[in-house]
Amino acid sequence: MRPQFEGMGSLQEIMAPGSYLAASCPPVQGAIRCFDGLELIEPGLVDVREWRPEKVGQAATLTSMPVGGVGHKPLPWAAAA
């Protein structure tokens, strides 16, 4: 794991089951690592503007938008089902 993402693994270890994590990151590979072991909530890991599509026209025009997502740490008994 690259140094800037080492803390994400530790954070997930102390997250309570049933918790959610929202994160954004410019490189897609980095953002994917943030959600290892979590269930991604729709619309998934996408351009951050897709989380609030009604606001797209108001967003600043950038050549590269960060990607973001929300992950859910499943409950232990839900994972076994």
Task: Please explain how this structure is put together.
By secondary structure, the protein is of the alpha+beta class. The chain has one domain (3-80). It has three helices and four strands. It has helices spanning 6-14, 28-34, 76-80; strands at residues 20-25, 39-40, 46-47, 67-72. Strands 1, 2, 3 and 4 form a four-stranded antiparallel β-sheet that branches. Residues 1-5 have low confidence and may be disordered.
Order of helices and strands: HEHEEEH
Q: Give me the number of helical elements.
A: 3
Number of strand elements: 4
- Our Rg estimate from Cα atoms comes to 14 Å
Strand content: 15-25%
Number of domains: 1
- Summarize the main sheet: 4 strands, antiparallel
Net shape: globular
Return the structural class.
alpha+beta
First-last Cα distance: 30 Å
Poorly predicted spans = 1-5
| Overall pLDDT confidence | 76
State the helical fraction.
Answer: 25-40%
Secondary structure elements and their pairing?
Blueprint (H helix, E strand, L loop, with lengths): L5 H9 L5 E6 L2 H7 L4 E2 L5 E2 L19 E6 L3 H5 L1
Antiparallel strand pairs: 1-4, 2-4, 3-4
Task: Give the gist of this structure.
With 81 residues, the chain is α+β, with helices and mostly antiparallel strands. The chain has helices spanning 6-14, 28-34, 76-80, and strands spanning 20-25, 39-40, 46-47, 67-72.
Descriptors:
alpha+beta, globular, disordered N terminus, 81 residues
